[in-house]
Write a structure and sequence with these properties.
Blueprint: E1 4-5, H1 10-36, H2 47-60, H3 62-65, H4 69-87, E2 105-106, E3 116-117
Parallel strand pairs: 1-3
Antiparallel strand pairs: 2-3
Helix pairs in contact: 1-4, 2-4
Length: about 130
């Protein structure tokens, strides 16, 4: 898999961070939904059902529709791959919530291009808590 480092201009950073936020939202929603299902409640939704739910959510919420559908669907594909890795014994932990500081890669790219690094890792953030004051 190839990786590419992006050096966005300040105008592009906001769009990249917005796409990262949308992908993180979709991932965390899939994690929450997966954790709700138990053997007593039946099976958790599969990838196709999650994609249908994403389409419904995009029709309902303008802020989600404004983002890239490709990035959001890639987050679902990555989540499904993480589940397959976990249940196949190739990963030690069940996929968990993605925090903002840890979700620094834009999913997607075309085919074999793989993920695209945002290039904003380590950049000071104005929204940090009181621990930095």
């Amino acid at each position: 898999m190839s990786r590419y480092r992006l050096y966005p201009v300040p105008e592009q950073v906001a769009g990249l961070e917005e796409n990262c936020g949308h992908a993180r939202f979709v991932w965390n929603l899939a994690v929450e939904q997966q954790s709700w299902w138990t053997p007593y409640r039946g099976k958790a939704p599969n990838h196709l059902e999650r994609c249908r739910q994403l389409t419904e959510a995009r029709a309902t919420f303008d802020w989600l529709r404004a983002g890239s559908q490709t990035v959001q669907q890639q987050a679902l594909r990555d989540f499904d791959q993480a589940l397959r890795n976990f249940f196949g014994g190739r990963m030690g932990e069940v996929p968990g919530i993605a925090a903002r500081a840890r979700f620094q890669v834009l999913p997607g790219g075309s085919g074999s291009c793989g993920p695209l690094a945002c290039g904003v890792r380590g950049r000071p953030r104005a929204d940090r808590g009181s621990r930095d004051r």
